[in-house]
Amino acid sequence: MAKQPEKITSQAFGGKSFKDLIVGATKRGDIFFALAIILMLVILIMPLPAWLLDIALALSITISCLVLMTAIFIEKPNEFSAFPLVLLITTMYRLSLNLASTRLILAKGYQGPDAAGEVIKAFGGFIMGNNFVIGVIVFAILVIVNFVVITKGSGRIAEVAARFALDAMPGKQMAIDADLSSGLITEDEARARREDLAKESSFYGAMDGASKFVRGDAIAGLIITFINIVAGIIIGMVQNHMSFSAAAEAYTRLTVGDGLVSQVPALIISVAAGILVSKAGMTDSTDKVLFEQVANYPKALGMSSFLALSLGMLPGTPAIPFILLAALTGATAYYLDKQQKQALEQAQAVLEEEQKQGKIAKAADEPIANALRVDLIRLEIGYGLLPLINEETNKKLTDQIKALRRALASELGFVMPSIRIQDNMQLEANEYNIYIKEVKSGKGELRPTQLLVMDPRGEPITLPGEATYEPTFGLKAMWIDQSYREEALFRGYTVVDPSTVVTTHITELVKDNMPELLSYAETQKLLDELDKEHQKLIKELIPGKISLGAVQRILQNLLQERVSIRDLPTILEGISEAVTTTRSLMMITEHVRTRLSRQLSNAYANEFGVISLVTLSPEWEHAFAEAIVGDGDERQLAMAPSALQNFITKVRNVLEELAVKGENAVLLTSPGIRPFVRSIIERFRPLTVVMSQNEIHPKAKIKTVGQI
Q1: Is residue 302 within a helix (H) or strand (E), and if so which, with residue range?
Q2: What is the pLDDT, as a whole number, of residue 286?
Q3: Alpha carbon of 552 to those of 233, 521, 524, 561, 596: distances in Å?
Q4: Closest CA to 377 of 445, 439, 470
Q5: Cis status, amide bond into 543, omega within 30 of 0
Q6: Which DSSP helix (H) or strand (E) runs through 628?
Q7: Which of 374, 375, 398, 378 is CA-nearest to residue 386?
Q8: How far is the first Cα of the chain from the last one, in angstroms, to the nearest whole number?
Q9: To which H or E segment does residue 477 belong?
Q10: Residue 339: CB partners within 8 Å, gap ≥ 6?
Q11: I want to staple 369 with a disulfide (CB 3.0 to 4.6 A). Which of 32, 329, 365, 511 is the partner?
């Protein structure tokens, strides 16, 4: 018998427990939300009893407090992107309650103060102090504060924020694209930033329009209050035979109480809207931002304490409140100032200790370390370029250098050494020098606050700016103001920032000097970092069949022609095969290149997957073969200078004609003469690729576009 009530309850809910019904209700939130909107519309049509109106008014005040607390505690404005919708729904809800309360006031106002419910009675009695004149004044002040001050100010802020957010959207979008193209962010991070940017623009645009809801609500409250007072007095005198004073007191008390009940949540919602649109640029909750920023200036609190104390000492002013406030603000200022001094002293002590340890270490190592240390890559900048590397203001240059190291490791399998960046007071303010192994390999001049523009078609740049040359490739360029960025992109110009100019220059210099930067230690490190399954091959190969220095030289030969050494296992397998037949590092390198034929064919194919080839005529093939003298590593090219000059002229003419047509051709030779042809080509066209017939993969698509 004890289980019978549970059985009846389960049957009453169709065989489901109450918990199951609650869970099912949360899953159908869309239906309940639609029902809530319908109920608001029902309130506009059907009368509400006084007890139900009390519940609805209490819910209105609670919702407005919830919205205000949410606006205070969120860290970013677009985290509350549903606020415009909330503003619309709460405004509609309050107006429907205004209509319901108006119906009760006009119909039953003659019955007494509780005719429209206990909530309106409480506001009409407690807040007005049983004096409807005071109530009218309080209501008028609330409306003025809401309508003139808060609503108007928040609406203006929302309008300006929406305008600036939309104006800044193209620049922010291009900044995301630039960071993505330079490797600073991934595709997923770029997508997330684009979504945040779109949400931010949509939010401020919606807030610009939603602020009009609050303004309209304040106007509607004024009109409804005026109508209720006039209509109530007429109804009380004509229909209920009340005197003018009695009708005025009864209906005015109820109307003003109703107006206060409506205006208090409206004022709370308006404050929430003002806080939300005023938080543009903040990345923390309101209390943290406010208190942290005020606490940073204890002098301001100290001056406020002095001012309060001075006011308290004036004749006729109450001294106790001002003295108490002066003591409170003064004590707070003293505590904050003491904390700041302690933090500063601790930071200075840590800095002095680090400097002391650095001086000791420097003094101990100075005789040898300073004399023998060689920076593999060093970037020296003038004092005017220091903002490019200032960690507190701009990390773009250092971040791009980090991205460059990752890109080179992924593209060529070469781990670029760390770049030492230092200022040089002997340079001009905007100059920089790049050193490779203490030898100056490149220099340039930047404009840190401007953008460098180049025309890929080679035509003159028509934008206003300072004419210059791009430091990496020597192309004609121009420094322009950042305000012309969109116009330059619209005209099809290539636009780069100063950090990208330096990074591009470093990239090309590193690629040109990769063989020198690949040291013995770096080669050993590459081998040590291979997977365990390849370590057996390394043990069999080094040092039994070939030395580590020879492997380093072979890798340098590959890097000399910008061939990726990322597929190190295949390179080692090729070396292992070649050392059984030859000890010539040149021939071993050529065999390794043959093993890398798939990689080479893919790297030098165009966007259609076709390799454009320029072949050597049989006469030139025979001439080079006949001019090679010596054996093994002693093989050399002994060709007459006039023949070499003739060959260089023909190669230059053919490749330049193809370049004009947009063809980036590969020079194809027989395997035996390829290294010697390359040694000649690299002197006047270092970026021209020279491949042998064995390096063309069998499945590669080829097209012959010329012949030497």
Answers
A1: helix 298-312
A2: 58
A3: 103, 9, 9, 15, 17
A4: 439
A5: yes
A6: strand 628-629
A7: 398
A8: 106
A9: strand 476-481
A10: none
A11: 365
Q: What's the CA gap between 385 and 379, in Å, rounded? A: 11
Question: What pLDDT does residue 284 have?
Answer: 55
DSSP class of residue 441 equals E
In terms of phi and psi (left: phi > 0; alpha: psi -120 to 50; beta: otherwise), the region of 193 is alpha
C-alpha span between 192 and 197 (Å, rounded): 9
Task: Report d(CA 118, CA 99) in Å as an integer.
Answer: 17
Alpha helices by DSSP H, listed for 447-565, are 485-490, 498-512, 514-517, 520-528, 532-541, 548-560
Provide the pairing of β-strand 431-436 with 377-381.
Answer: antiparallel
SS (H, E, C) 352-390: HHHHHHHHHHHHHHHHHHHHHCCCCEEEEECHHHHHHCC
Phi and psi at residue 381, in whole multiples of 5°? -125, 155
Q: Is the separation of the CB atoms in 61 and 264 below 8 Å?
A: yes
Structure tokens belonging to residue 338: 């003491």
Q: What share of the chain is helix, strand, coil (3-state, %, to 5)?
A: 70, 10, 25
Count of other CB atoms within 10 angstroms of residue 57:
25
What is the mean pLDDT, run by run of 10 residues, along the chain of 708 residues? 42 48 55 77 76 82 83 74 78 80 76 71 66 71 72 68 65 67 69 75 67 71 77 80 77 75 78 72 56 67 77 76 80 78 74 62 51 78 80 65 82 82 83 88 87 82 86 86 83 85 88 85 86 84 86 88 87 88 86 89 86 88 85 78 87 85 85 87 85 88 86
CA distance 198 to 78: 10
Residue 565 has a CB neighbour count (10 Å cut-off) of: 21
- Asked if 450 and 484 touch (Cβ cutoff 8 Å), the reply is no
8-state DSSP, 558: H
* Cα-based angle 46, 50, 54 (whole degrees, multiple of 5): 105
Model pTM score: 0.49
Distance in angstroms (rounded) separating the CA atoms of residues 206 and 529: 55
Cβ proximity of 655 and 665 under 8 Å: yes
Say how far residue 381 (Cα) sits from the centre of its chain. Answer: 27
Rounded CA-CA distance 123/256 in Å is 8
Sheet containing 377-381: give its strands across: 419-423, 377-381, 431-436, 439-445
